[in-house]
Amino acid sequence: MNNVSITPYEQLQKLRVIDDIMFQMLAESEKVCQEILRVILDDARLIVQKVTPQASIANILGRSVRLDALCTLGDGTICNIEVQKKNDNDDLRRVRYNASSIVSNFSKKGSEFSQIPNVTVVYISRYDVFNSGRTIYHVDSVIRETNTTIDDGLKRVFVNTQYCEKDTSDVGALMRCFLHQTVTDKRFPELTKRFNYLKNDQKGVDSMCKIIEEYGDERAAEAAAEATAKTLVNVIETAAAELGSIEKACNLLKVTRKQYDDAKALLEKTLVV
Protein backbone atom coordinates (compact mmCIF):
# COMPACT_ATOMS: atom_id res chain seq x y z
CA MET A 1 0.00 0.00 0.00
CA ASN A 2 1.35 3.42 -0.95
CA ASN A 3 1.66 5.99 1.81
CA VAL A 4 -0.20 9.14 0.85
CA SER A 5 1.35 12.18 2.49
CA ILE A 6 -0.90 15.02 3.51
CA THR A 7 0.28 18.53 2.73
CA PRO A 8 0.57 21.23 5.42
CA TYR A 9 -2.31 23.08 3.75
CA GLU A 10 -4.50 19.98 3.91
CA GLN A 11 -3.56 19.53 7.58
CA LEU A 12 -4.43 23.16 8.20
CA GLN A 13 -7.91 22.79 6.75
CA LYS A 14 -8.58 19.90 9.14
CA LEU A 15 -7.55 21.86 12.23
CA ARG A 16 -10.13 22.95 14.79
CA VAL A 17 -9.95 25.44 17.64
CA ILE A 18 -9.43 22.61 20.12
CA ASP A 19 -6.31 21.36 18.29
CA ASP A 20 -2.99 22.36 19.88
CA ILE A 21 -1.42 24.24 16.98
CA MET A 22 -4.58 26.15 16.13
CA PHE A 23 -5.36 27.13 19.71
CA GLN A 24 -1.77 28.26 20.23
CA MET A 25 -2.05 30.63 17.28
CA LEU A 26 -5.52 31.83 18.25
CA ALA A 27 -4.33 32.50 21.79
CA GLU A 28 -1.76 34.99 20.52
CA SER A 29 -4.68 37.40 20.22
CA GLU A 30 -5.69 39.12 23.45
CA LYS A 31 -9.07 39.87 21.87
CA VAL A 32 -9.73 36.18 21.17
CA CYS A 33 -8.80 35.15 24.71
CA GLN A 34 -10.91 37.99 26.10
CA GLU A 35 -13.92 36.88 24.05
CA ILE A 36 -13.55 33.26 25.18
CA LEU A 37 -13.20 34.24 28.84
CA ARG A 38 -16.10 36.69 28.75
CA VAL A 39 -18.39 33.87 27.64
CA ILE A 40 -17.11 31.15 29.96
CA LEU A 41 -16.77 33.38 33.03
CA ASP A 42 -20.01 35.21 32.22
CA ASP A 43 -18.42 38.63 32.52
CA ALA A 44 -19.08 41.01 29.62
CA ARG A 45 -16.67 43.60 31.08
CA LEU A 46 -13.70 41.29 31.58
CA ILE A 47 -10.47 42.70 30.14
CA VAL A 48 -7.42 40.71 29.07
CA GLN A 49 -4.39 42.97 29.35
CA LYS A 50 -1.75 40.45 28.35
CA VAL A 51 -1.59 36.88 27.10
CA THR A 52 1.35 34.48 26.81
CA PRO A 53 0.64 31.37 24.70
CA GLN A 54 2.54 28.22 25.66
CA ALA A 55 3.89 29.87 28.80
CA SER A 56 6.53 27.81 30.61
CA ILE A 57 7.06 27.91 34.36
CA ALA A 58 10.30 26.21 35.38
CA ASN A 59 10.71 24.43 38.69
CA ILE A 60 14.30 23.37 39.39
CA LEU A 61 13.21 21.33 42.41
CA GLY A 62 10.21 19.61 40.85
CA ARG A 63 7.98 19.33 37.83
CA SER A 64 7.84 22.24 35.40
CA VAL A 65 4.66 23.22 33.58
CA ARG A 66 3.70 24.56 30.17
CA LEU A 67 0.45 26.49 30.03
CA ASP A 68 -1.66 26.89 26.88
CA ALA A 69 -2.66 30.52 27.40
CA LEU A 70 -1.63 32.51 30.46
CA CYS A 71 -3.65 35.71 30.68
CA THR A 72 -3.35 38.74 32.93
CA LEU A 73 -6.75 40.31 33.51
CA GLY A 74 -7.62 43.92 34.13
CA ASP A 75 -8.16 43.36 37.86
CA GLY A 76 -4.78 41.66 38.26
CA THR A 77 -6.13 38.11 38.23
CA ILE A 78 -3.92 35.56 36.49
CA CYS A 79 -6.07 33.33 34.30
CA ASN A 80 -4.84 30.14 32.70
CA ILE A 81 -6.78 28.67 29.78
CA GLU A 82 -5.98 24.98 29.33
CA VAL A 83 -7.19 22.87 26.41
CA GLN A 84 -7.10 19.10 26.72
CA LYS A 85 -8.24 16.52 24.16
CA LYS A 86 -6.90 13.24 25.55
CA ASN A 87 -8.58 11.77 28.60
CA ASP A 88 -5.38 10.27 30.01
CA ASN A 89 -4.52 12.47 32.95
CA ASP A 90 -5.65 13.28 36.47
CA ASP A 91 -7.38 16.50 35.48
CA LEU A 92 -8.16 17.76 38.98
CA ARG A 93 -4.60 17.33 40.24
CA ARG A 94 -3.27 18.80 37.01
CA VAL A 95 -5.37 21.92 37.54
CA ARG A 96 -4.30 22.15 41.18
CA TYR A 97 -0.61 21.80 40.33
CA ASN A 98 -0.75 24.33 37.51
CA ALA A 99 -2.54 26.82 39.76
CA SER A 100 0.02 26.42 42.54
CA SER A 101 2.85 26.87 40.02
CA ILE A 102 1.27 30.11 38.80
CA VAL A 103 0.90 31.40 42.36
CA SER A 104 4.54 30.60 43.15
CA ASN A 105 5.79 32.19 39.95
CA PHE A 106 3.82 35.41 40.33
CA SER A 107 4.37 35.91 44.07
CA LYS A 108 7.25 38.15 45.02
CA LYS A 109 9.75 37.02 47.62
CA GLY A 110 8.79 38.30 51.06
CA SER A 111 5.32 39.41 49.99
CA GLU A 112 2.36 39.21 52.35
CA PHE A 113 -0.17 36.45 51.80
CA SER A 114 -2.74 39.15 51.06
CA GLN A 115 -0.63 40.07 48.03
CA ILE A 116 -0.73 36.60 46.50
CA PRO A 117 -2.46 36.96 43.12
CA ASN A 118 -5.91 35.62 42.46
CA VAL A 119 -5.82 32.73 39.99
CA THR A 120 -8.54 31.44 37.69
CA VAL A 121 -8.10 28.20 35.75
CA VAL A 122 -10.39 27.59 32.79
CA TYR A 123 -10.03 23.95 31.77
CA ILE A 124 -11.54 23.12 28.38
CA SER A 125 -11.67 19.42 27.55
CA ARG A 126 -13.07 17.16 24.85
CA TYR A 127 -14.68 15.03 27.57
CA ASP A 128 -16.75 15.60 30.71
CA VAL A 129 -14.30 15.50 33.62
CA PHE A 130 -17.09 14.87 36.12
CA ASN A 131 -19.34 12.66 33.97
CA SER A 132 -22.44 14.51 35.14
CA GLY A 133 -23.90 15.59 31.81
CA ARG A 134 -23.11 19.31 31.97
CA THR A 135 -21.12 21.55 29.66
CA ILE A 136 -19.70 23.76 32.42
CA TYR A 137 -18.80 23.22 36.08
CA HIS A 138 -17.67 25.79 38.66
CA VAL A 139 -15.57 24.20 41.39
CA ASP A 140 -15.44 26.15 44.68
CA SER A 141 -13.85 25.73 48.09
CA VAL A 142 -16.63 24.96 50.56
CA ILE A 143 -16.78 24.60 54.35
CA ARG A 144 -18.49 21.24 54.67
CA GLU A 145 -20.06 21.86 58.08
CA THR A 146 -21.77 25.12 57.10
CA ASN A 147 -22.01 24.65 53.34
CA THR A 148 -20.36 28.05 52.99
CA THR A 149 -18.31 28.91 49.92
CA ILE A 150 -15.05 30.63 50.78
CA ASP A 151 -12.90 32.90 48.64
CA ASP A 152 -9.29 31.72 48.81
CA GLY A 153 -8.30 33.44 45.57
CA LEU A 154 -8.61 30.35 43.36
CA LYS A 155 -11.41 29.80 40.84
CA ARG A 156 -11.67 26.63 38.76
CA VAL A 157 -14.03 26.34 35.82
CA PHE A 158 -14.27 23.13 33.83
CA VAL A 159 -15.84 23.26 30.37
CA ASN A 160 -16.25 20.44 27.88
CA THR A 161 -17.40 19.88 24.32
CA GLN A 162 -19.09 16.52 24.96
CA TYR A 163 -22.66 17.85 25.03
CA CYS A 164 -22.29 21.07 23.07
CA GLU A 165 -24.34 20.00 20.05
CA LYS A 166 -27.47 19.98 22.25
CA ASP A 167 -26.49 22.87 24.53
CA THR A 168 -28.30 26.06 23.49
CA SER A 169 -26.34 28.38 25.81
CA ASP A 170 -23.57 30.73 24.65
CA VAL A 171 -21.04 28.41 26.30
CA GLY A 172 -22.46 25.50 24.29
CA ALA A 173 -22.23 27.56 21.10
CA LEU A 174 -18.62 28.45 21.89
CA MET A 175 -17.76 24.80 22.46
CA ARG A 176 -19.27 23.93 19.08
CA CYS A 177 -16.83 26.40 17.55
CA PHE A 178 -14.02 24.45 19.25
CA LEU A 179 -15.05 21.24 17.49
CA HIS A 180 -15.81 22.36 13.95
CA GLN A 181 -13.41 22.90 11.07
CA THR A 182 -15.17 26.15 10.22
CA VAL A 183 -16.10 29.00 12.56
CA THR A 184 -18.84 31.41 11.46
CA ASP A 185 -20.82 32.18 14.64
CA LYS A 186 -21.51 35.93 14.77
CA ARG A 187 -21.67 35.77 18.57
CA PHE A 188 -17.90 35.33 18.56
CA PRO A 189 -16.57 37.88 16.05
CA GLU A 190 -12.95 37.92 17.27
CA LEU A 191 -12.64 34.13 17.26
CA THR A 192 -14.32 33.91 13.85
CA LYS A 193 -12.12 36.64 12.38
CA ARG A 194 -8.79 35.20 13.54
CA PHE A 195 -9.73 31.57 12.81
CA ASN A 196 -10.66 32.42 9.25
CA TYR A 197 -7.55 34.59 8.84
CA LEU A 198 -5.35 31.64 9.81
CA LYS A 199 -7.21 29.25 7.51
CA ASN A 200 -8.14 31.39 4.50
CA ASP A 201 -6.05 34.57 4.27
CA GLN A 202 -2.84 33.98 2.31
CA LYS A 203 -0.59 35.49 4.99
CA GLY A 204 -2.31 33.49 7.70
CA VAL A 205 -2.18 30.30 5.64
CA ASP A 206 1.53 30.76 4.89
CA SER A 207 2.39 31.27 8.58
CA MET A 208 0.28 28.29 9.65
CA CYS A 209 1.74 25.97 7.01
CA LYS A 210 5.25 26.92 8.13
CA ILE A 211 4.37 26.20 11.76
CA ILE A 212 2.79 22.86 10.82
CA GLU A 213 5.95 21.83 8.97
CA GLU A 214 8.18 22.89 11.87
CA TYR A 215 5.91 21.17 14.36
CA GLY A 216 6.08 17.92 12.39
CA ASP A 217 9.89 18.01 12.20
CA GLU A 218 10.17 18.89 15.88
CA ARG A 219 7.79 16.14 16.98
CA ALA A 220 9.65 13.56 14.86
CA ALA A 221 12.98 14.50 16.45
CA GLU A 222 11.44 14.52 19.94
CA ALA A 223 9.81 11.14 19.38
CA ALA A 224 13.13 9.59 18.30
CA ALA A 225 14.94 11.04 21.33
CA GLU A 226 12.17 9.91 23.68
CA ALA A 227 12.23 6.37 22.26
CA THR A 228 16.00 6.12 22.75
CA ALA A 229 15.78 7.49 26.28
CA LYS A 230 12.93 5.14 27.19
CA THR A 231 14.87 2.12 25.98
CA LEU A 232 17.98 3.17 27.90
CA VAL A 233 16.08 3.80 31.14
CA ASN A 234 14.14 0.54 30.89
CA VAL A 235 17.28 -1.53 30.30
CA ILE A 236 19.16 0.12 33.16
CA GLU A 237 16.27 -0.10 35.63
CA THR A 238 15.62 -3.73 34.74
CA ALA A 239 19.27 -4.54 35.36
CA ALA A 240 19.24 -2.48 38.56
CA ALA A 241 16.35 -4.55 39.91
CA GLU A 242 18.58 -7.62 39.59
CA LEU A 243 21.86 -6.03 40.69
CA GLY A 244 20.53 -3.89 43.52
CA SER A 245 21.44 -0.39 42.32
CA ILE A 246 21.45 1.96 39.36
CA GLU A 247 25.21 2.42 39.70
CA LYS A 248 25.90 -1.29 39.32
CA ALA A 249 23.60 -1.49 36.31
CA CYS A 250 25.33 1.46 34.64
CA ASN A 251 28.75 -0.09 35.22
CA LEU A 252 27.63 -3.42 33.78
CA LEU A 253 26.12 -1.79 30.69
CA LYS A 254 29.03 0.67 30.30
CA VAL A 255 26.71 3.66 30.63
CA THR A 256 27.57 6.68 32.75
CA ARG A 257 25.25 7.75 35.55
CA LYS A 258 24.89 11.11 33.81
CA GLN A 259 23.60 9.42 30.65
CA TYR A 260 20.98 7.61 32.72
CA ASP A 261 20.03 10.79 34.60
CA ASP A 262 19.75 12.77 31.36
CA ALA A 263 17.53 10.10 29.78
CA LYS A 264 15.35 9.99 32.89
CA ALA A 265 15.06 13.79 32.90
CA LEU A 266 14.04 13.80 29.24
CA LEU A 267 11.25 11.32 29.89
CA GLU A 268 10.02 13.34 32.87
CA LYS A 269 10.11 16.48 30.74
CA THR A 270 7.78 14.88 28.20
CA LEU A 271 5.20 14.63 31.00
CA VAL A 272 5.17 18.40 31.43
CA VAL A 273 1.59 19.66 31.35
Helicity level, as a percent range? 40-55%
Secondary-structure content class: alpha/beta
Order of helices and strands: HHHEEEHEEEEEHHHHH
Question: How large is the radius of gyration?
Answer: 22 Å
Report on this structure.
There is one protein chain. Helix content is 46%, strand content 18%. With 273 residues, it is α/β, with parallel strands linked by helices. It has two domains: 8-200; 215-269, no CATH class. It has a six-stranded mixed sheet with strand order 1-2-3-4-8-5, sandwiched between helices. A two-stranded antiparallel ribbon has the order 6-7. α3 crosses α6 (189-200). The longest helix has 42 residues, at 202-243. The chain is globular, with a radius of gyration of 22 Å. The protein starts with 7 loop residues before the first helix and ends with a helix.
